[in-house]
């Protein structure tokens, strides 16, 4: 049996980022940029006004004989248009936010600091002295032509999308999304819409994993359930091999019908099997042909937890991310963990911020078949291997399942 850390290291060593693809800008959210983004123009592209007001020569804003200067209004420039006239000494032009500052003018005074006879006034009085550049947003103030604004490896969020749109990137080079085959196993497993029969249970794992795979940023392909026969598994794996990663659940334990390992060895290679953890000891990792296969346990909680610890980092690495694992923090375990395990124990818990501390409450029965104790959990409290006891009020590490990877 190997440790969780060794398992993750060995798995990730076999995984590389996928090739580049070009996607429409609106589809780039949460993907990883595959090229540097260099501005091909100044942003903003032209000097423009930061205010609604009047464009003028700043020297014209000085008091004249102790009186506010009165300037002749020679026109108006709205956002989206370019003034044809030039502002010269003694004149001003009405200007709106975002409009290009007309030639000749070197400042804008906001409308609140002026007096006029309303929208058709032929004159405007300037009530305050303004310096050159006042309320003028210079071309290139935000980004200048030739500037590297984003780099390869950046994750694309809403703000990056805004910057890419500003620079005219209608399509974006990204690391493409992995396609993940999800294969259930077991003669007892029937589909959700089927009526329960004696001895049968519904396929929760494939649906749970499908959602978790999608949440991790990959494209899931739920391929149904293989029977507990070599033939049925071979058939499913032939289909699964069309994808970038295969996730199975069940069939990797020590029972007579746990055949996933056999097929892995037959059609590829099994790198390891069994991890010193609970829930989720029977995890197998290997390749079918060239496609990595992560064989997750059949018990739903084990499948869920091992997907979080191993499957999700694999998908993130394929997506080109460099931050692969969830953060761990110190928590006070309010209720303690009473059952002692020799294996590393990942205890489902709810962590909340209370009076200056992160406090964990475990979510109930920790059996690997008890799905309801996943429901309220946002963390896994880590109880070290070796039968360590956690008493109420003890401090422990917890993996925050709803915090971004670090
Ligand atoms: P196995 O490792 O195949 O022996 O499965 C371990 C346990 O997980 C058994 O109780 C199975 O019935 C259960 N199990 C296996 N696959 C699924 C599945 N797709 N959905 C729900 N439970 C499953
Ligand atoms: Mg089985």
Describe it:
There is one protein chain. The chain has 406 residues and is α/β, with parallel strands linked by helices. 18% of the residues lie in helices and 31% in strands. Strands 7-4-6-5-9-8 form a six-stranded mixed beta sheet, with no helix packed on it. Strands 16-13-17-21-20-18 form a six-stranded mixed beta sheet, sandwiched between helices. Helix 1 packs across helix 6 (300-318). The protein is elongated, with a radius of gyration of 32 Å. The model has no long low-confidence stretch (mean pLDDT 97). Residues 185-186, 250-251, 257, 298 line the site of magnesium ion.
What is the fold's blueprint, element by element?
Layout: H1 4-13, E1 20-24, E2 37-38, E3 48-49, E4 53-56, E5 70-77, E6 91-95, E7 107-110, E8 114-116, E9 123-126, E10 136-137, E11 148-150, H2 158-166, E12 171-175, E13 179-185, E14 189-190, E15 201-202, H3 204-215, E16 219-226, H4 230-240, E17 245-249, H5 260-267, E18 268-273, E19 277-278, E20 284-288, E21 291-296, H6 300-318, E22 328-333, E23 344-354, E24 357-362, H7 372-375, E25 379-383, E26 395-400
Parallel strand pairs: 5-6, 13-16, 13-17, 14-15, 17-21, 19-23, 22-24
Antiparallel strand pairs: 1-12, 2-11, 3-10, 4-6, 4-7, 5-9, 8-9, 18-20, 20-21, 22-26, 23-24, 23-25, 25-26
Helix pairs in contact: 1-6, 3-6
